[in-house]
Design brief:
alpha/beta, Rossmann fold, 6-stranded parallel sheet, 6 strands, about 40% helix, binds ligand FNR
């Protein structure tokens, strides 16, 4: 089963991207996490350009979502919500509506922040936006606060409890996606 892992951060040393790399390591047998690397290439959403010949980066996003059985999104919080470029990606992926690549797609969400709240407002908004776009958000939020203390120099999570919670998060997502994957 393929899970597309999307980081809401473009920053080279992003904590959220590190979390997704850890999730890839912790994924159960038979579950492959592929890190989406096209976020920076997406142009600003323009309904006038959203035609049968959508921009190549948009085609790539939509086909990668369609080819994945599930999505795992880890997002920072920018000014109390999800980053604009992540919202932009979801806007592109949400069209054409309702037959878009996100429709009924199981999605698990997580968020890392240097502060105390683990990007909770961003995750709350991300859940709502994905639901409106037609995706099926599964499980609870996974807030990871105090980012600077959570990762070692190699980008590995240092807290065994947090590693276990992340592994459970991916396992729940895979369990939600398995029936559709088996039927395909
Ligand atoms: C932030 N940051 C931030 N943090 C937070 O907890 N709540 C917030 O509202 C904001 N707002 C915000 C706005 C902007 C424009 C920036 C650049 C940053 C801090 C943010 O959580 C921090 O930079 C994280 O490290 C970003 O995640 P990555 O890039 O490490 O994944």
């Amino acid at each position: 089963m393929k899970v597309l892992a999307v980081s809401g951060s473009l920053r080279a040393d992003s904590y959220n991207t590190k979390l997704l790399r850890e999730a890839a390591e912790l994924a159960p047998a038979g579950v492959e996490l592929e890190l989406y690397d096209g976020l920076a290439s997406l142009p600003p959403y323009d309904a006038g350009h959203d035609t049968d010949t959508a921009p190549a980066a948009v085609d790539d996003l939509r086909s990668r979502i369609a080819a994945a059985e599930a999505l795992l999104i880890a997002t920072p919080e920018y000014n109390g919500s999800l980053p604009g470029q992540l919202k932009n990606a979801i806007d592109w992926a949400s069209r054409p509506f309702p037959g878009n690549s996100l429709r009924n797609k199981p999605v698990a969400i997580a968020g890392v922040s240097p502060g105390l709240y683990g990007a909770m407002w961003a995750q709350t908004d991300l859940r709502r936006v994905l639901g409106v776009a037609g995706a099926r958000v599964v499980g609870e939020e996974l807030p990871v606060p105090r980012a600077a203390e959570q990762f070692d120099d190699e980008g590995r999570l240092v807290d065994p409890d947090l590693r276990a919670r992340l592994a459970e998060h991916v396992e729940l997502l895979a369990a939600e996606a398995r029936p559709a994957a088996a039927a395909a």
